[in-house]
Structures are given as structure tokens and as C-alpha cells.
Amino acid sequence: MEFFDVVKRRRSIREFSDKEVPRRLIEECLDAARLAPSGTNAQPWRFLVVQSPERRAALAEAGFNQPCLRNAPVILALLGDLGVDRKRLRRAKELGDAGAISGDALAILEDKYGNANETKTARSARIAADCMIAGEHYALAAAALGLGACWVMLFDREKAAAALGLDAKNNFPVALMPTGYPLREPHPRPRYGLAEVAWDEMPGRPWEAVREE
Ligand SMILES: Cc1cc2nc3c(=O)[nH]c(=O)nc-3n(C[C@H](O)[C@H](O)[C@H](O)COP(=O)(O)O)c2cc1C
Hints:
Blueprint: H1 3-9, H2 23-34, E1 45-50, H3 53-62, H4 67-70, E2 74-81, H5 82-85, H6 88-97, H7 103-114, H8 120-144, E3 148-149, H9 157-164, E4 171-180, H10 194-197
Antiparallel strand pairs: 1-2, 2-4, 3-4
Helix pairs in contact: 1-8, 2-8, 3-9, 6-7
Bound molecules: flavin mononucleotide (FMN).
């Protein structure tokens, strides 16, 4: 599917058919996630694919039994990886060597990361932001392949971590993404118009569309 068709046709899918999802298609979605950009190219993520009925049931419970978790054949657990993130200073230096960031910017990163000047909250938020870009790559790839997924961030983190058997020193759950073949195509959810959300040059000056709708 062409890129803009994928973007326009993607929906949050909450009802799935019983049709088995081929392993190859899951792999394509994971590969799209892996290619996502991340701050200092840290790539602080892990993608845990859950298909066993017991684990899916435990995740559905952690997710307050939201229907999309109860009936999905596959649930992707999008995890932040603190171990990989510890290599971020090395990744930042690679960007410096490649001339992608200035010496001044690199010095700031070295101070922040090298001297552990980042709070735990800021670090988790930064890792989660990176993971969410990867998650949307995954969701768009799923849509392009005729599959569907849904972001789920309303869940009990401790219960989900226990259901997934996570080592809390290294991994924490950022989101759950039920995945499968859509049972039906949902109506689009409303969006604000471009003139409402896009400003031209100055705050509050609406972007005037030149395209024909
Ligand atoms: C960060 C984030 C968290 C979300 N959490 C949930 C959730 O816990 N459960 C759910 O059913 N949908 C969840 N959604 C899906 C949104 O409700 C959905 O994207 C929105 O209503 C727009 O609909 P659409 O994705 O079909 O365009 C979440 C979406 C995002 C981006």
C-alpha cells in the first residue's frame, strides 16, 4: 500500500478475526519497528511477541480486560530497555564522529549521560518516547500488510511486567499492542482540521491550505 494510503487507512483495531497471523508478517512489522529513529540512536527498546493463550490472558487482565487485549491472537509488548540505553553515550559519540551533531551538543550529552546527570523519571520518559516511535512504525507496517493493531497504554505496569516475566533491572513495559487481522474496518475517529492545529510562521496564525480537499 502507498504510504499516504496507509496513514489515512490505519485505524485502532480492537476486534480481530480468528485467522492466524503468519510469522513472516509479524517479522516485517518488527523490522519496521527496529528501523525507527531514536534519540542519539540509542534504540532503547525490546519487542516481546506474545502468542500463548495463558500469557495473553494475563496481559488482558493487566489491561483491565479491555476487549482488544482479550481477543487479539498476538500481543506485542513494547519494552524500554535500560541495558541497551546504557550504551547511549557510545551511540552519541558515533553521531559526533559522523559530524551529525556539533561538538557543543556532544559535550552536553556527555555531561548528561557520562556524569549520570539525568533523573530516573527523565530517563524513563526519554526511553518511552523512543519506544513509541518504534511502536508507530510497527502499527503502520501492520496496516500496510492488511493487519491491524491498537495502542494500549492503560494497563497495570506491575502486573504486565510479572505476566511477561520481565527483569525490572533491564526492562519495563511501555505499551501493549494487540495485533491480528481486523474483523471489520472501524469508522475513522474524528480529527481536528489542519487550520485548527497548524500555524503559519506565528503562534495562532492558521495554516491556509493550498491543496484541494
Ligand atoms: C498513547 C496512546 C495510548 C492509547 N491507549 C489506548 C488504550 O489503552 N486502549 C484503547 O482501546 N485504545 C488506546 N489508544 C487508541 C486511541 O484511543 C486511538 O488512537 C484514538 O481514539 C484515535 O483512533 P484511531 O487510532 O482509530 O485513529 C491509545 C492510543 C495512543 C496513541
